[in-house]
Amino acid sequence: MGSVLEEPVTVAACDTAREVLRTSDLNWLLHRAAQRVGDLLEAAAVQHGIGMRGQLVLSALRAHAGRTQLALGADLGLDKTTLTTVLDKLEDAGLVRRQPDPQDRRVRIPTITEAGEQLRELVDHDVRLVEKELLDVLLPDERRILEDTLRRLITAEVDGCERSAGSCM
Hints:
Elements: H1 11-20, H2 25-46, H3 52-63, H4 69-76, H5 80-92, E1 96-101, E2 104-112, H6 114-135, H7 140-155
Antiparallel strand pairs: 1-2
Helix pairs in contact: 2-6, 3-6
C-alpha cells in the first residue's frame, strides 16, 4: 500500500487540505490559483510538443542571445540538470542549437533556431489566448489590481525572511 504522498492529488484532497490548514487561507488560494494557471498554460504548450519550461527557454534565448548554458540557467532560476534536460529535448526537436563558446570550448552557448522561433511564436499566441480566457472572469480593473497586488507580494520585504529566488517554472 502506497503512502498518502504517492496518491494522486484530487480537488477533494485540496479542499480537505484547505480545511486542515486554516492558518493560511492566502497561501492555499495563491497555490491553487498558481496550479490552475500553470496547468492550463502547460496544456497549451504541450499541444505543440514542448512544456512551459521549453517555452521559457526559447523565449529567453530569443530575448538575450549569446549567454552560456550556465548563465541561462542562473538567469531563469533553473538548476543545471533541469536546464540540460530541457535543452536536450529542444535540440533533439531542432528548436535549439548548442555551440562551443569561442573563449572556452568546454562551455556551450545555446541559440534558438528558425524552427524554434516559429514554434515559440505559436506557443506564445496560444498561451496568451488561454490566459485571456481564464482572466475574462475578471473585470479589467480587477485584473490590473490582481497583477499589481501579486507583484507587490512577490517583492515585499518581510522582517527576518529573505526573498527566495526559487525556480521560475
